[in-house]
Every structure is written in structure tokens, then in C-alpha cells.
Inverse folding.
């Protein structure tokens, strides 16, 4: 069979590699001129390598973990996680450690936190509609305002009462104040012996960053004489109401296939369909929102700037949301001893003031904020920098996104040989493992299986395929 795959991110490449192994003819069309790996790429700059964010390789699925290790059998390193929260001039351990939090907050604020926790336990918010409700019900309003509010608002660019409770439920489910404290005191004894996802203390990482995984996957596909076409953005998906016939790329080429697996953003997929889908589906697609992201990478002439892999910056006094120290992910990401690459993460909307600021202005902002936080002593320590903008880094879970996605899903299901996969492809806050799982199942569907990819969710452990319902 001839399968056209759109996007060479983790999802597209995983689907591609899986279908190549089964002997199919595969063509992957990728918009980016140079990088594979999508959001999980590793950027290369003058001998330095850095991620978009920082990509931990962690999965509850043995299938995914094996897939990673089979692809890169000798290149995984085990990284001990150290991350802290910077808030009002103090560093809090994260995951929270009871005594450290108590010490930093002081007795009075800690007392208020306990009081507000007890209050919400006695009188919880009856209907958890927003992120604010969800977290407050579990942590109390005081802890919510200290540890969740400012950072979450930086990430999403909107007040916490306008962020869906689904986000919290999916992202930090299993993490209650009780389990956080329990974990702080008895780290081995997590609930039912499971690792609570946000509390992972150690993770796997490819020596040269996640891009190494995706470049290897691309190379394996190319070695099997299949195609990965770079700089090839899909703009039109031609269909006859029942099946997709071909896709058209911006360079005017047309790609026919028997089956189409699409990881480009769901909004763009709907808009690309020709003939156009009904106005309700187009309207639903237009309502889907995204949060964009930029990294200011700064090169510092110092070996140990701070010990963390990353620091969350909850402090409202700076625009910075999080800082990665890539030296502490893997020493191999830095070209020489005595230097460090820091990734300063700014959350923004494509086209806003931050996004449109010149690279020079952003590098200056980064240098200023690093000094303001006391992480470097003089601007002279920073000898180079660059900026990477990543549009659509986060699919937003706005108040009605689930209904909109469901409506689009029903529309797309009319096209029997089209499958959407991955993170933006399904408008799901998926990590690499879930993005890959949708891809593996899509590849099986091409061969006649009937997995419902929408059942793969970030809570599902999917150790066994049986856990995922099949169509009808
Ligand atoms: C800051 C940050 C940190 C993260 N940290 C982690 C982590 O620690 N661990 C983890 O597992 N996951 C992490 N993730 C999530 C991870 O990045 C994603 O789950 C993963 O990259 C999704 O893979 P994908 O293939 O679905 O999508 P993407 O990575 O978005 O790839 C989609 C690809 O499609 C291409 N494309 C788009 N439109 C078109 C078009 N019209 N035509 C052709 N090609 C197109 C894009 O260029 C891209 O290459 C993080 C994400 C962010 C934003």
C-alpha cells in the first residue's frame, strides 16, 4: 500500500517507521526545511544542541519504552531530575518537599496554607469547571495562588478560571497534596506503587537530545529507500466525501496515496480539506486555540550555573516562565568544558509583542532577567545567544474545546482512509509517548485493525491493546 504521512515529528516518523517495517510504500511530507522531530527536535547552534523545552523520555507503556531503546540501544543516559520553583526570591524544591516549603514560606504562610486546605476539604467547590477550581479543591486556595496561579497564567496567557479543568485532570491527576507530601516524606511509596507522573525523579534522555531519536528514525526510513520530503508543506487535502484522494503541497506537487496519516495541526487539516467541510466544522476548527513558545538560548562562560535541569519561574516580576540548563540534561549537548547553554522559555502568542520582538531585543531581555534573578553576575558572562520560535507548542484546552474537537472528529470519520495522529494533529496535550502510540495504532489500522485513536489518552496506560476500544 502507498501511505502518505504528513509531518516528520515523533508521530509521523513513528507511523512511517512502523509501516516501512511492514513493507509498505511510505512518503513523509515535512514542512520544515531542515529539522525532523517537530517540537521534539534538537536545535543545533555553533556546536551547541538544545531542545524546545526539555524532552524527558518517560512512558508507562513498555511498548514505547522498548521502541525507544531498540532505536537507540547505546545512546540513552539516565538523568536525575532536579527542578525547583523560583518564587519571590526563594527556591522551592519541586516536587515539593514539606520542610523546604515550610522553611521558605515561613510559619504564618504555611499555617494559612493548611487552613485554606482544610477549608476546601470541608467545603469543596461543587462543580470543577476550571483549572482554578480543580487545583483549589485539591490543594486549597492559598497553595493554588502560590504554586500554580502565576506560572500557569504565564504558560497559557489567560486567567486560571478560564482554563478547562480537563487540563489539570489530565496533567496532574494522581497528585494530591496528600500524595505530594507523602512523596516528600516517603519517596518510594507512591500510590499503589505507581510513579505519579509529575513527580518523576529520574528519566531517560538520548545523549544528544531527543532530536537524536528522530534523526535516527528518519535515517532508518531513508535507508529503506522510502522518502522523507523536507520543506514540503501540505496545503490541500483532496477528497470525494468518502476517501482522501491526494494531498497538494505548497510547491504545487500532488501526492496520491491509498491511506493518509496526518499529524499537522487539526485546525489546518480541517481548513485544508477540499471540497470544504460544512461551516459548523470550519467554525469549530477556527475556535481551536494554541499557545506559542520561544526559547532564548544563552551561552554562559561558566560550567555550573545552577544544579537543576530546569527552574520554574513563578515570580511575577519577570516574563520568563522556565529556564533549562542543558548541561544538566547531557554534557554532550555542549561543545566544550567551561561553558553552559541555558534555555530561557517565554510563552507567548504568535504575532504578539513578545513573538514579534527582534532576536536582539529578546536576547537582551533574557540577559537582564537572568541577572535580575541572580543566576548570572554580569552580562559579560553571557557570550552568545540565539532565539527559536515554536508556533503551536501547546494546544489550548479552552472552555469548549472538547465539543469542537468532537464535532471535527465526526466530520473526519467520514473519510475512511484518513487518520489524524499526534499532539496538534488531535488537539491533545500529548507527550511524545502518546503521540507515538496514536501513530503505532494508526499504522495497525492501515493493515485492517480498528483501533479508535481518540481512546488513547494521556491517562491510559495502554499496556495492552485490549484496553483501547475498537470502533463499533
Ligand atoms: C515545551 C515543551 C516540552 C515538552 N516536553 C516533553 C517531554 O519532556 N516529554 C515528552 O514526551 N513530550 C514533551 N513534549 C511534547 C512533545 O514535544 C510532543 O508530544 C511531540 O513532539 C508531538 O509529536 P507530533 O509528531 O504529534 O507533533 P509535532 O512535534 O508538532 O510534529 C509535527 C510535525 O508536522 C509538521 N507539519 C506541520 N504542518 C505541516 C504541514 N502543513 N505539512 C507538512 N508538515 C507539517 C511540523 O513541521 C512538525 O515537524 C513537550 C512539548 C513542549 C511544547
Amino acid at each position: 500500500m502507498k501511505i502518505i504521512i504528513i509531518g516528520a515529528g515523533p508521530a509521523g516518523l513513528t507511523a512511517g517507521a512502523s509501516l516501512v517495517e511492514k513493507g509498505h510504500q511510505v512518503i513523509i511530507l515535512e514542512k520544515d526545511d531542515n529539522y525532523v522531530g517537530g517540537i521534539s527536535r534538537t536545535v543545533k547552534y555553533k556546536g551547541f544542541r538544545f531542545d524546545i523545552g526539555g524532552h524527558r523520555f518517560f512512558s508507562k507503556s513498555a511498548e514505547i519504552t522498548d521502541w525507544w531503546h531498540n532505536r537507540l540501544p547505546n545512546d540513552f543516559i539516565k538523568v536525575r531530575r532536579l527542578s525547583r520553583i523560583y518564587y519571590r526570591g526563594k527556591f522551592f524544591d519541586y516536587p515539593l518537599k514539606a520542610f523546604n516549603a515550610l522553611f521558605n514560606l515561613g510559619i504564618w504562610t504555611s499555617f494559612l496554607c493548611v487552613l485554606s486546605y482544610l477549608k476546601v476539604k470541608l467545603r469543596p467547590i461543587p462543580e470543577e469547571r476550571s483549572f482554578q477550581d480543580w487545583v483549589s479543591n485539591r490543594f486549597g486556595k492559598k497553595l493554588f495562588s502560590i504554586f500554580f496561579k502565576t506560572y500557569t497564567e504565564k504558560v497559557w496567557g489567560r486567567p486560571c478560571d478560564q482554563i478547562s479543568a480537563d487540563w489539570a485532570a489530565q496533567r496532574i491527576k494522581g497528585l494530591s497534596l496528600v500524595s505530594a507530601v507523602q512523596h516528600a516524606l516517603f519517596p518510594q511509596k507512591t500510590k499503589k506503587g505507581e510513579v505519579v507522573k509529575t513527580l518523576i525523579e529520574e528519566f531517560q534522555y538520548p545523549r544528544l537530545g531527543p532530536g537524536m531519536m528522530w534523526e535516527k528514525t528518519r535515517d532508518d526510513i531513508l535507508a529503506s529507500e522510502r522518502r522523507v520530503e523536507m520543506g514540503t508543506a501540505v496545503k490541500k487535502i483532496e477528497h470525494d466525501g468518502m476517501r482522501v484522494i491526494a494531498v497538494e503541497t505548497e510547491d504545487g506537487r500532488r501526492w496520491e496515496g491509498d491511506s493518509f496519516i496526518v499529524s499537522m495541526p487539526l485546525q489546518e487539516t480541517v481548513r485544508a480539506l477540499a471540497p470544504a467541510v460544512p461551516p459548523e466544522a470550519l467554525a469549530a476548527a477556527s475556535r481551536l486555540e494554541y499557545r506559542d513558545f520561544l526559547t532564548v538560548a544563552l551561552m554562559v562562560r561558566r560550567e555550573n550555573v545552577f544544579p537543576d535541569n530546569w527552574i520554574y519561574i513563578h515570580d511575577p516580576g519577570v516574563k520568563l516562565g522556565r529556564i533549562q540548563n542543558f548541561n544538566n540534561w547531557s554534557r554532550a549537548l555542549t561543545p566544550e568544558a567551561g561553558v553552559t547553554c541555558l534555555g530561557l522559555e517565554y510563552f507567548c502568542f504568535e504575532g504578539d509583542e513578545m513573538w514579534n520582538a527582534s532576536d536582539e531585543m529578546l536576547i537582551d531581555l533574557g540577559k537582564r532577567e537572568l541577572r535580575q534573578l541572580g543566576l548570572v553576575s554580569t552580562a559579560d558572562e553571557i557570550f552568545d545567544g540565539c532565539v527559536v520560535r515554536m508556533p503551536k507548542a501547546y494546544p489550548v484546552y479552552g472552555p469548549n474545546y472538547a465539543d469542537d474537537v468532537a464535532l471535527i472528529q465526526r466530520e473526519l470519520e467520514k473519510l475512511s482512509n484518513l487518520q489524524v495522529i499526534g499532539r496538534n494533529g488531535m488537539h491533545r496535550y500529548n507527550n511524545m509517548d502518546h503521540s507515538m502510540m496514536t501513530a503505532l495504532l494508526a499504522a495497525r489500522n492501515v493493515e485492517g485493525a480498528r483501533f479508535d485513536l481518540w481512546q488513547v489518552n494521556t491517562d491510559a496506560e495502554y499496556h495492552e491493546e485490549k484496553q483501547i476500544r475498537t470502533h463499533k
The chain has 15 helices and 20 strands.
